[in-house]
Design a protein that fits this description.
The chain is α+β, with helices and mostly antiparallel strands and 657 residues long. The chain has four domains: 116 residues, no CATH class; 218 residues, Rossmann fold; 55 residues; 217 residues, paralog of FGE (formylglycine-generating enzyme), CATH 3.90.1580. It is 22% helix and 25% strand. It contains 13 helices and 39 strands. The strands form eleven sheets. Strands 3-2-1-4-7-17-16-15-11-9-10 form an eleven-stranded mixed beta sheet, with helices on both faces. It has a four-stranded antiparallel beta sheet with strand order 20-19-27-26, with no helix packed on it. β24 and β25 form a beta hairpin. α6 packs parallel to α7. The two termini are 21 Å apart.
């Protein structure tokens, strides 16, 4: 299993009118930015000089200080620090630089040669897929294209290299290696329809077409000649049955263009839903290629995140030839849209098959079906679908009605419901149902809560907190709509944001408002029942820790989620309405929570005062009506639980122990 858990250090590199800007958009140490120039990068003589020049140019001033603090935080928590590079679309010069060679002279090491500091070129997308639940072995499909009308490629030699690299993994049952018989677009489509392609390894020619401004790979046509396949076409073909990772062993597979950052094949595939793509912008020697493939696939099959598996491969290449002037260990480039690069939940598929009851699917002549981990017993199917006067014998139904609707057919399978969450709750990212709020993991440990200089938050004290997950955002109208849909007796919150029990389009990703404490608790109770997980309102200690980040020594965490200094434009305050929950992405807390200050005041489960039963509950975060000087992570307020106003909502906590 992976050696470490990881914190993310997200660095955005942007082009400016004159020069460039490095901006830390999220990290365990908050945010920072600094301008830099490429002049110090030339001339360079070797990979260490290149890497040091890149590092010194970008990690200067406040950005460097932020990295140092983030590194210290990761060390204190016995975690790794993942460097996620986000390169602005217009910064084509920056995209072409060898960031994988970054050299931190103060620590005398290359960042990419340590599992404590893997490097990934991160391409953020609206939604990232959870790890795929899969039982061993992983299936690796090799597509080796050698068109007769292009420069000769020894396809048999390439196949032999891959076979050599993976022989022991195949023998141990960790990997199944398969070669695509016909390296054509139609051949790939036929194979994908058969399913079970977890990894795709392409070996062949690639280029960037200046006229179409597209990255292109060359497959073979029916006659064995070159068939250019642009990135858009390939992305469409792969979309419905996407491998979790594609390895592009093509010369220009990682190229990009000034007008379109995703013009290179690798970038376009990640943009189109492939979680991770490794691209080789230059060829490497056979010995290095074997070491790379063997070590990478071995670590991936052992459950390592893709970036950590690649780091292990880099180390193996380096160890085989430390004096290598070509620095072939730095050649592979990992592009990823997966937040933690965990592509597989290995073994989870087996666990699903062995636990719980069979799935029942009931097809009706309306074309719909009832599905879930339901038992059929007596008159009951699932939670709320009853059989009237019918019996189930094996896989057949005697009678023809299910809850008054005519049955076309009914069948029982042993497969788990596709909507059922499978990823461990302690993973950085967990699988969730479409209506289920996104949560972030907050590690266990002592937490310094409160502030002595805020009357309502005094005194400062240290509290033990178990590990938990908390909503990344407040619950939105989109998420609350499912609750209303399944609970007809629950009234609409208001008429401004809702019409016929559905949220109005303009408000769908705003936090739901006009929530009483009872409404919030009812939602959490329903969400627990609907998911089989334990959701609740956070207590105020859980809320404050998620907002402030880890405590430092005897001191508390940050005053604000983004740091110790107020920043205009980092929270929706002193305004007249809510904003979408992702509006202030730059204001994320050290743990990655958003919208903690301003926008909507949030209910907690903590009672205010000593009344039994409680007559008031603690509120956190302020709202869009608040003034900037009134909001901070430790600030507290309270109100009676029946209070209902247009600036109050809530977020959830997910209990994991």
């Amino acid at each position: 299993m992976p050696p470490l858990d990881y914190l993310n250090f997200d660095l955005l590199l942007e082009a400016r009118t004159a020069g460039y800007r490095a901006r830390v958009v999220a990290s365990p140490a908050g945010e920072a930015q600094a301008d830099f120039d490429l002049a110090p990068l030339t001339p360079v003589t070797d990979v260490q000089t290149t890497g040091a020049a890149l590092f010194n140019a970008v990690f200067a001033g406040r950005v460097g200080d932020c990295l140092t603090r983030a590194w210290q935080t990761a060390q204190a928590e016995a975690k790794g620090l993942r460097l996620r590079l986000r390169i602005d679309e217009q910064a084509t010069t920056l995209a072409a630089l060898p960031w994988e060679t970054l050299y931190w002279a103060q620590q005398a090491r290359f960042l990419a040669l340590s599992v404590h500091s893997p490097i990934v070129r991160y391409i953020e997308q609206p939604r990232a897929d959870p790890p795929l639940a899969v039982a061993a072995p992983l299936r690796l499909l090799a597509l080796i294209a050698a068109p007769a009308d292009l420069t000769a490629l020894d396809s048999e030699h390439e196949w032999h290299l891959l076979q050599t690299a993976t022989a022991d993994l195949v023998a141990q049952g960790q990997l199944v290696l398969e070669r695509l018989a016909q390296p054509t677009l139609a051949g790939l489509q036929d194979r994908l329809r058969q399913g079970d392609v977890h990894l795709l390894h392409f070996m062949g020619h690639g280029q960037f077409d200046a006229q179409t401004r597209q990255g292109t790979l060359f497959f073979e046509d029916a006659a064995g000649n070159a068939h250019p396949v642009d990135a858009t076409t390939l992305a469409i073909l792969l979309h419905d049955q996407p491998p979790r990772l594609i390895f592009l062993n093509a010369g220009q597979g990682a190229s990009s263009d000034g007008q379109n950052f995703f013009a290179g094949v690798a970038q376009a595939l990640v943009q189109a839903r492939i979680p991770a793509v490794i691209a080789m912008p230059a060829p490497i020697r056979d010995t290095a290629a074997i070491t790379l493939a063997h070590t990478f696939y071995k670590a991936l099959a052992a459950g390592y995140p893709a970036d950590v598996a690649l780091t292990e491969a880099r180390k193996a290449i380096y160890a085989a030839d430390p004096a290598d002037a070509l620095a072939e260990w730095a050649t592979p480039i990992l592009f990823s849209r997966a937040p933690d690069n965990q592509l597989f939940a290995l073994g989870a598929a087996d666990e699903q098959q062995s636990e719980g009851q069979p799935t029942v699917q009931v097809n009706t002549d309306g074309g719909t079906y009832i599905e879930g981990n339901a038992t059929v017993g007596g008159d009951l199917i699932g939670r709320d679908k009853s059989v009237h006067g019918d019996e189930v014998h094996g896989d057949k139904v005697a009678g023809d009605k299910v809850a008054g609707n005519k049955i076309t057919n009914i069948y029982v399978t042993s497969a788990a419901s596709p909507a059922a969450p499978t990823a461990p709750l302690l993973a950085a990212t967990i699988e969730r149902q479409t209506f289920e709020p996104e949560t972030v993991l907050i590690p266990a440990g002592a937490f310094v809560m409160g502030d002595d200089d805020v009357a309502s938050a005094a005194p400062r004290r240290t509290l033990p907190l178990a590990v938990y997950r908390i909503g990344k955002y407040p619950v939105t109208h989109r998420q609350y709509a499912e609750f209303l849909k399944r609970n007809p007796a629950q009234p609409e919150p208001d008429k401004q944001h809702w019409f016929l029990r559905k949220p109005k389009k303009a408000w769908i990703d705003h936090p739901v408002v006009n929530m009483t404490w009872y409404d919030a608790v009812a939602y959490c109770d329903w969400l627990s029942q609907a998911t089989g997980r334990h959701y609740a309102l956070p207590n105020e200690a859980q809320w404050e820790k998620a907002a402030r980040g880890p405590s430092t020594g005897s001191g508390a965490g940050q005053i604000y989620p983004w740091g110790d200094t107020w920043r205009d434009g980092y929270a929706n305050v002193n305004s007249t309405a809510t904003t979408p929950v992702e509006t202030f992405a730059q204001a994320a807390s050290p743990y990655g929570c958003l919208d903690l200050l301003g926008n909507v005041q949030e209910w907690t489960s903590s009672a205010w005062g000593e009344d039994d039963p409680p007559t008031a509950y603690v509120l956190r975060g302020g709202s869009f009506r608040s003034q900037a000087n009134a909001v901070r992570c430790s600030a507290r307020d309270s109100i009676h639980p029946a209070s209902k106003v247009a600036w109050r909502g809530f977020r959830v906590v997910l209990i994991v122990e």
